[in-house]
Structure formats: C-alpha cells, structure tokens
TrEMBL record:
UniProt keyword list: Decarboxylase, Lyase, Magnesium, Metal-binding, Polyamine biosynthesis, Pyridoxal phosphate, Spermidine biosynthesis
Active site per UniProt: 500 (proton donor)
Binding site for substrate: 282-292
Catalyses which reaction(s): L-arginine + H(+) = agmatine + CO2
Span of domain Orn/DAP/Arg decarboxylase 2 N-terminal: 75-342
UniProt keyword Metal-binding, yes or no: yes
PROSITE patterns, per database record: ODR_DC_2_1, ODR_DC_2_2
Keyword Amino-acid biosynthesis assigned: no
Gene3D superfamilies: 1.10.287.3440, 1.20.58.930, Alanine racemase, Lyase, Ornithine Decarboxylase, Chain A, domain 1
Protein name according to UniProt: Biosynthetic arginine decarboxylase
Family: Belongs to the Orn/Lys/Arg decarboxylase class-II family. SpeA subfamily.
Recorded GO MF terms: arginine decarboxylase activity; metal ion binding
Origin species: Deinococcus cellulosilyticus (strain DSM 18568 / NBRC 106333 / KACC 11606 / 5516J-15)
Organism phylogeny: Bacteria, Thermotogati, Deinococcota, Deinococci, Deinococcales
Length: 631
C-alpha cells in the first residue's frame, strides 16, 4: 500500500475537504485548492497568491470571496422559502445579520446587497454598530434590530431610525429599558417598535450552553414580560410590542435543542397573541452552526443538522404550536451570523521555517573514557529496539532520563555526559516512534509519541490577531496546504506563530472521529509553501488583538468572472507598525525626535558617521511605515 501513488483525492480525504467545505472548496486534479462559486466559476487559490506576491504584497493575507458570502445569504433565505412552501406556512421569513460577527465593510455591504430582495436586515448590539447599520442600504421592510444594553443615546438613535423610514425594532434586554423607550419616544414623538428578549428555560448545546437558561445575561422572564404588556396596555401602546426574541447561544450542535427552544418561544408568542397583543415577528436568534470538522455530530466543532433541516425544523415547530394554539403564524426572523460569514474568507499563511526532531541534525557528543554508567545504559538501550520490546525500552529510557536529571542536579553528572545522554534518549524516542508506526495495537504510553516528535512549522502570522478563538476557546478551523496536494505529506507537524507568546501555537486539528494532535504536512522544498486556514470568517476579524503589536493583516477581495477567471477587486492594506504603536498612546513625532536625539549624541561621541546616521534614520522610518509581519 505504501508505494501507491498519492492522488489529489487522497489529500481531499486526508484533510476532510469534502466534509467541511460545504461545496465551496475542492482539491483540483493538479493538487491545488480551488474555490467553487455559483455559475460554475472557480478560483485556484495559489494563482491569486502568486499574483499578489508578484505585485509586491506581503503575507499573511486574508482572501475574501464576496460571492461566497452572497451565496450564504441566498442559501439561508432560500432554505426558509422552501420550508415555508413545503409546509404551506402562512407567514414569511426575514433574516437579520448580527453585525458583531463581522463588521468589516465588505462583509456588511455584501450581505445587505445580496439580501436586499430577501428583506435581510441587520442587528446592532451597540451605538457604534447602530450608527453603522443606519447608513446601510437595506430594504424598507428589512428589520434593524437593536439588541444589547442601552442608554438614552442608543434609544434616541434607534427612534430616529424609524423616522428615517427604517424598520427599527428595539429589543428590551432588561425591564428598565421600557421606561427609557417610552419616555424618549414621547419626547421625540416617534412611535416605537419594541421586541422582548425572552429568557427561555431551554438551553443551547455545545460551548455556549450557558447563554440560555435562567441564569442568562440577557432577557426578561415570564413575570417581567407580563409587566411590559401591562405597562404598554396602560399607555394604550400594545401594538408597539412587535417582536418576541430569543437566543440560546452560538454554534448549537444539537438540532433537538433548537426545536425545544423554538417550541418554548412560540408558546410565549401564542400566549401573547391570545391575550390580544398583536406580535408580528418571532425571532429565533442565532446559533445556526458551522461544521468545522465535517463530522456531522454534536461535537462542539460540528453540528448534527444541515441548514435546510434547520429551516424546516424552525418552520415546522412554529407552525405546529400556532395551529394547536389557533393563532396566526408569525413572520419568522433568525439572526444567523456565524453560518453566514464563516465560509467567505481564507487566511493564507506562509511557512517560514521548520524545526523539530525530524529536521534538526542530531548532534551526539563523543563518548568519553570515564562516561557515567547511566549514559552507558542509554547507549545499550538505543542499540536494540524492536516492535516487540519498544514499550519496555521506552519505560526504561524514561526512567534513565529522570535519574540522569537527578544526578546532574546533585553534581554527579558532567554537562558533557548530560548532553550525550539526552542525545541518546532523543534517538531512542525517534526509533520507538518509527516502531510505533508498524504496531497493530499501540500501548497507552506510546500513543502520545507522534505529537512529542512532531515538527514545528513556524508560520508568518499571529494566532492572537487572526485566530483568537483557537487560542481562547479551542475553536478548531480546517487547515490545509493550498498546493502540493498531489504529493503525500510525510511529516507530522504542529504550527507556531511569530509572536513571543508560547501560547501562539496550533496543536489541535480537525478530524472526523477525534481531535488530531498533529497535522500532516510536506517537507519544504525551497519554494514558498502556503497553508490556508478556512471557515474563519465569523468573529475572528473582530476579536483579534494586537499582541506583540502584530496588526490587522492585508486583505484581498477576490471575485470570479467568466472573462478574466478572477479579479482582485480591492486590496486593503494591513495595519502599519506606526498605527499599532500609536494605538498604545505614542506619537510618531515623539518617537522620531527621540531617535534623532540619540543619533546626534552617538554621532558626537564618534559612534556614528554622518551617512550611518542617515541610514539608521531611513531604516527606522521604513519600519514605522512597514507591515508588522515578517517580510
Ligand atoms: C451573537 C448573537 C447572534 C449571532 O449568533 P450566531 O451563532 O453567530 O449566529 C445572534 N443573536 C444575538 C442576540 C447574538 O448576541
């Protein structure tokens, strides 16, 4: 089997591409990764990267595919349309994009445009987000939901939005917001539309389970909701209550949790309608998942349902409750952010360097006459390792290494012997790891060896800037070389970034059955070797931080068309060093003044010639204006 030719399909299988790609990514016959777009269009990632590099653009780069984003918006709305038709549901569906998931201009504008005819709206969770949303061109019937905690400014802006002709709904997250809304709507003479976020008993599943339930941060309980209804009735404003809203957390892995939550929310809606409150919208919140590992399970990086099943279950459940309660079927609203944005971008990072046991030349110090017995023991162990005795040798070697450490610390072992002993030990581990590959059954102690022996691929990026969720909450993103996929990857690797933080590493990878501790990669061959990080279009762009002053990365917006194949519509430069430094409260001029003064002093002492002084000045300026990543 070992010698059969490795084909692109084998790579697709190895990296699980058909399982997580949702049809947007594919390994082509040349072993290169390709983006598939509607209308039979496709783009080879390597070609785009080569063009950008030829144009002098530096890595890392985020490639954004607005067509993928538009397609996601369309797919979600169409999925609901189909379900509505199938069940003969009497209301319609209107999606809302919660912009906190990705406020980048191209993202919001693309979603607004692609969703115009579907009446897709936006959701703001802060004043700044509302200011952004109000300026977008969305359909007059599209919703503009205002969530999050609010002050007078937030509420006033929302009310002005209604005067502008926008369908703004203010979601009450807590009781006290009602008085604020009533007071300001009188002051501004605007009739408000309010929604109530209801604290469901139902909980989500997966990592955000605690977002729902009694202890949720947001929402009104049943008594509070009734109080709101009474207040509005007193004010003769019952018809202002236009939406019931719930959100049980992001990345719901189990469809059953969604059904339970939607059933509860619909019962709340139906009770209000029966009590004479003309609620128009039922907003089921976010939570539609992304299958990061492609396993179609309730594992936190996956989901056990499709977008179509989600839409069908939401529509069916709402209808079922409404029919039983004999109330009108509401307009269904959902606030999917992750599922709309995750697929549209690919972060491309170059491998800079490889270090680790299989690459670093083993340097074994010579044997000395008076070598310590413990080193001799290791020497003997290293000489006869077989599949049969591997486990025994491993245990002995580990014990010897421990003894060696103790001896050294007590002053009974020379640095030379320690060096030789460690080198022998490393050699033993490597031989055992080879033997493990031929074992049918791998003993527990040896299971972790491939990880210990994995090479470290140093990549030009910052985990904290570009993949904060991998660092903070262990989100797994598919990672795969964008080329050489017709060659068998022969190394097992973990990835490290270029920050000085030892947390800046990736050592967990997607797998259909488990979480893999290493990623199969190719031996660098002197040419650029690029890895693509996929499905990172949700939350990462926004949550990323400037650890070590690595800034936002360069971005290219890439569009496919029939004539040219593809076209780079826009290149957005990443943050320059100067910007990152100024963010910390420094002024560029002060920095320059300080450097110039130091040069002058050094020059007077004779440490600098005039031309050297000039050169330092130039280098300093170049770096201030430069990209923060390695160039
Ligand atoms: C964050 C958030 C969303 C988005 O959730 P996704 O799981 O990304 O779809 C939706 N609604 C509310 C209220 C949110 O806070």
């Amino acid at each position: 089997m070992k010698n059969t030719r490795f084909k692109p399909q084998d790579a697709a299988e190895l990296y699980g591409v058909p399982y997580w790609s949702s049809g947007y990514f594919r390994v082509n016959d040349e072993g290169k990764l390709e983006v598939d777009l509607p209308g039979g269009l496709s783009i080879v990632l390597e070609e785009v990267i080569e063009e950008l590099v030829a144009r002098g653009k530096s890595m890392p780069i985020i490639l954004r595919f607005p067509q993928v984003l538009a397609e996601r918006v369309k797919s979600l709305s169409e999925a609901f349309r189909k379900a509505i038709k199938e069940y003969d549901y009497q209301g319609k569906y209107q999606g809302v994009f919660p912009i906190k998931v990705n406020q980048r201009r191209v993202v919001v504008e693309t979603i607004a445009k692609a969703g115009y005819s579907y009446h897709t709206g936006l959701e703001a969770g802060s004043k700044a987000e509302l200011a952004l949303c109000l300026a977008q061109n969305i359909h007059p019937e599209a919703l503009l939901c205002c969530n999050g905690f609010k002050d007078d400014g937030f509420v006033s802006l929302a009310l002005w939005g209604r005067k502008l002709g926008k369908n703004v709904v203010i979601t009450l997250e807590k009781m006290s917001e009602l008085d604020r809304v009533l007071r300001l709507s009188k002051e501004l003479n605007v009739k408000p539309a309010v929604g109530v976020r209801f604290k469901l008993n139902a909980k989500g599943s997966g990592q955000w389970e605690e977002s729902g339930g009694d202890n949720a941060k947001f929402g009104l309980n049943a008594a509070e909701l009734l109080h709101v209804v009474e207040r509005l009735r007193e004010e003769d404003m019952l018809d202002a209550l236009s939406m019931i809203h719930c959100h049980i957390g992001s990345q719901i892995t189990d469809i059953r949790r969604i059904k339970v939550a939607v059933r509860e929310a619909t019962n709340v809606y139906a009770n209000l309608v029966k009590a004479g409150v003309p609620v128009k919208y039922l907003n089921v919140g976010g939570g539609l998942g992304v299958d990061y590992d492609g396993s179609k399970t309730t594992f936190y990086a996956s989901m056990n349902y499709t977008m179509a099943e989600y839409a069908a279950d939401v529509v069916y459940t709402i209808q079922e409750v409404c029919q039983r309660m004999e109330v009108q079927e509401p307009i269904i609203v959902s606030e999917s952010g992750r599922a709309l944005t995750a697929h549209h971008s690919v972060l491309v990072i170059p491998v800079l360097d490889v270090t680790g046991p299989t690459v670093d030349q083993p340097f074994i110090p010579d044997r000395k006459e008076d070598q310590h017995q413990i080193v001799t023991d290791l020497e003997q162990l290293s000489e006869n390792i077989t599949v049969r005795n591997a486990r025994e040798v491993y245990n002995d070697a580990v014990a010897d290494k421990e003894t060696m450490n103790n001896l050294f610390n007590l002053g009974y072992l020379s640095l030379h012997d320690r060096a030789r002993g460690e080198a022998l030990f490393n050699g033993i581990i490597r031989k055992i790891a080879k033997a493990v590959q031929d074992m049918k059954y791998v003993p527990d102690e040896l299971e972790d060896l491939p990880r210990v022996l994995a090479d470290k691929y140093v990549c030009n990026f910052s985990l904290f800037q570009s993949l904060p969720d991998n660092w903070a909450i262990d989100t797994l993103f598919p990672i795969i070389p964008i080329h050489r996929l017709d060659e068998r990857p022969t190394r097992e690797a973990t990835l490290v970034d270029i920050t000085c933080d030892s947390d800046g590493k990736i050592d967990k990878f997607i797998d259909l059955r488990d979480v893999k501790r290493t990623l199969p990669l190719h031996v660098p061959d002197g040419k650029p070797y690029y890895l693509g990080i996929f499905l990172a279009g949700a939350y990462q762009d926004v949550l990323g931080s400037g650890h070590n002053l690595f800034g936002k990365v360069n971005e290219a917006h890439v569009v496919a068309d029939k004539e040219e194949g593809y076209r780079i519509e826009l290149f957005v430069r990443g943050q320059k060093a100067r910007r990152m430094i100024e963010n910390m409260g420094y002024e560029e001029d002060d920095l320059r003044d300080s450097i110039e003064a130091q040069i002058e002093t050094a020059r007077k002492k004779g440490h600098f010639t005039q031309s050297e002084a000039k050169e330092l000045g130039t280098t300093y300026t170049e770096e201030l204006l430069g990209y923060t990543y390695l160039e």
